[in-house]
Design goal:
Low-confidence stretches: 1-6
CATH superfamily of the largest domain: FAD/NAD(P)-binding domain
Distance between the termini: 32 Å
Number of domains: 2
Largest sheet: 7 strands, mixed
CATH architecture of the largest domain: 3-Layer(bba) Sandwich
Order of helices and strands: EHEEHEEEEEEEHEHEHEEEEEEHEHEEH
Length: about 400
């Protein structure tokens, strides 16, 4: 330990930044290895299982069902520092917290998640939950979606997906499919025009699933999606959403009666401003080893990393064991040789009780778990998302068992 040097008042073998899905998964696996002293830095007292927010926004369950106390999730033997990181000094293998503590490490694992940049959409601030504007993308706003869907009587229901990387790339369209189903139940579907505006060029980047989703859109009578359109402004008084048409350099004005917002997202500011960041703002890691490209005792995984895959809990499920194996190798003076193949999964809810389970790797090749065609909508896969995956999350993944 370096505890005697004055510039390093505290030091640990491993410091993990972030107590979300990635941080807790890695901490739980490392906590089981004798002799590795682990500290986890996380300011929040609560932890949300965010995949359920899609269903909360569709009225299936209450948001509290997806929330636990962070203190109940910190693995035994791991020190929890309830603080946030202000800055990193990877040349000295230290970081400084918001309270001003300097923490040293032998190995740093950065798992700080993603930042929602609501302010980047002009006119939005203070208006979520009013005027038919809603969003599934935070605990504070998710119930606004069900309010907006339940109270919708007809007109333009507009769903947005931005051009920035976002967590769970399928979520904006899942919300739309469930809204369609709710409108049918409520007897207002004939009075609705459902519009999808996406900054992406396609409905889904893997052709096999894109074909299936295009059929869903046709079957549901959703208007032809507007691709490469990025939301930049909301005009509340006139109920207009303003998009940049990225292909033609023009502006498109769309009236709305219901507007579901996917906010712009980026790496957390304290990461963007640090030496750990790539030019894009994400922590710059090798896509196979999850190890930093410039600082060999730094690893990153999950949403804050530069790993070129979808930002999902399923991706973290496969990244965490790789990071843990490679951290242990470095601590033992061995060459880290575990690799991550880019696996991610997106459970695409298409209706109450139906789901397409997309699973694929870095090359966009399907990497499916089950012996049947997962591009077909299935009730069994919906039940998997609704009931089994949350249990696997709380009792398997966060305990380092699954």
């Amino acid at each position: 330990m370096h505890g005697h040097q004055s510039q390093k008042p505290v030091s640990h073998r491993v410091v993990i930044v972030g107590g979300g899905t990635a941080g807790i998964s890695v901490a739980a696996r490392l906590a089981r290895v004798r002799g590795i002293d682990v500290e986890l830095i996380e300011p929040s007292e609560t932890h949300d299982y965010q995949p359920l927010w899609t269903l909360v926004g569709a009225g299936v369950l209450r948001r509290e069902k997806a929330r636990r106390r962070e203190s109940d999730l910190i693995p035994r033997g791991v020190r929890w520092r309830r603080d946030a990181v202000a800055s990193f000094d990877p040349d000295r293998s230290t970081l400084t917290t918001r309270r001003g503590d300097v923490v040293g490490y032998d190995i740093l694992v950065v798992a700080a998640g993603i930042q929602l940049d609501w302010k980047k959409i002009k006119g939005l601030e203070g208006n979520i939950g009013r005027h038919g504007i809603c969003s599934n993308y935070s605990f504070d706003t998710v119930e606004s979606t069900w309010d907006a869907i339940r109270n919708f009587r007809g007109g333009d229901a507009v769903f947005t997906h931005l051009a920035t990387p976002i967590k769970c790339g399928g979520a904006p369209q899942k919300t739309m499919y469930l809204a369609d189903a709710a409108f049918r139940r409520q007897g207002v579907r004939d009075a609705a025009r459902i519009q999808f505006y996406s900054g992406e060029p396609l409905i889904f980047k893997v052709d096999r699933y894109a074909k299936a989703l295009n059929k869903v859109i046709l079957r549901k009578g959703i208007e032809a999606p507007h691709f490469r359109h990025n939301l930049k402004e909301v005009r509340v008084e006139t109920r207009e959403a303003i998009f940049d048409d990225l292909d033609h350099g023009t502006e498109v004005v769309q009236h709305f009666d219901l507007l579901h917002i996917t906010p712009p997202m980026s790496a957390p500011d304290f990461i963007k401003a640090s030496p750990l960041a790539a030019a894009t703002g994400w922590v710059e890691v090798d896509k196979l080893s999850c190890r930093h490209t410039r600082f060999p005792n730094v690893f990153a995984l999950g949403d804050c990393s530069s790993l070129p895959t979808s930002k999902t809990g399923a991706a973290i499920h496969k990244q965490a064991p790789v990071v843990v194996a490679n951290v242990r190798a470095v601590l033992d003076g061995r060459k880290p040789d575990a690799t991550y193949d880019g696996y991610t999964s997106c459970p695409l809810v298409t209706d109450y009780g139906s789901l397409i389970l997309a699973e694929f790797d870095y090359d966009g090749k399907p990497s499916e778990t089950f012996p049947f065609d997962q591009s077909k909508e299935r009730w069994s896969m919906y039940m998997l998302k609704r009931h089994l995956l949350p249990q696997l999350y709380w009792h398997g993944m966060l305990k380092g068992r699954a």
